Amino acid sequence: MKKNNPPSRVKVVCIGNRLRGDDAAGRYVADLLRKNGGIDVVEASSPLEILDVITSDTSHLIVVDAVENGGNPGKIHRLEIEDLISKNISYSSTHLLSLPETIKLLTALGEFGGKITLFGVEGADFGYGEKLSPKVEEACRKIANMIKIMFAWKTSSNLKTIRRKQASNRHNL
Questions:
Q1: What family name appears in the similarity comment (predicted)?
Q2: Full domain range(s) for residue 102
Q3: What is the C-alpha to C-alpha distance for residues 107 and 78, in angstroms, rounded to an integer?
Q4: Is the pTM of this model over 0.90?
Q5: What is the CATH number of the domain that holds 60?
Q6: In this structure, how many other beta carbons lie within 10 angstroms of the beta carbon of residue 119?
Q7: What span, in angstroms and rounded, lies between the C-alpha atoms of 4 and 74?
Q8: What local confidence, expressed as pLDDT, does residue 173 receive?
Q9: For a Cys staple, 71 with which of 122, 140, 142, 153, CB 3.0–4.6 Å?
C-alpha cells in the first residue's frame, strides 16, 4: 500500500491491480490526484485495506474501484454509504471481499462513523495487461476531477472558484 499523507480529514482510497487491465482504474485515479498534491491518497490492492486506513480524525472516506456490473464500459457509479446500506444495490467487484461488504463490515464494527462516498467505474477488460481501455481512462479523469472538486469544497473558502469548477465539470460529463 502506497501512501501520500498531507494533513487531512478526507482520505481517498484507490483500489486496483495495475496488471489486470481496467482493474487498474483506481490506481490511475490515484496517479491523477497526486499530480496536484494536497489530497490524502492511499493505493490499495483490496477493499479490506480500507480497515488499515481509517484513523480517528478521518471525517470523509472516498473510495474508487473498478466494477463489473454489466453496464457500459466507462460508466461511473457514485454511491453514498446510505444508498449502499439502505438499498440492496448490486455492486460487483473483482476482489475476494467486495467493496460494499467491506464498508458494511466497517460500519457494523463501529470503526467509522464518517461520510463514505464510493466511485465505481465499469470496466471492459480485466484480463492481464497494463493498459486501461479508452472509455475507462476517460471515466477515471472525470472521477479525479469530481474528487478534486469535493476536496476543494471541504477545504477551501473560495466558493467562487469551487462553483466555476463544478460548472466546468458538469459540462465535461
A1: Belongs to the peptidase A31 family.
A2: 3-172
A3: 19
A4: no
A5: 3.40.50.1450
A6: 26
A7: 26
A8: 57
A9: 122
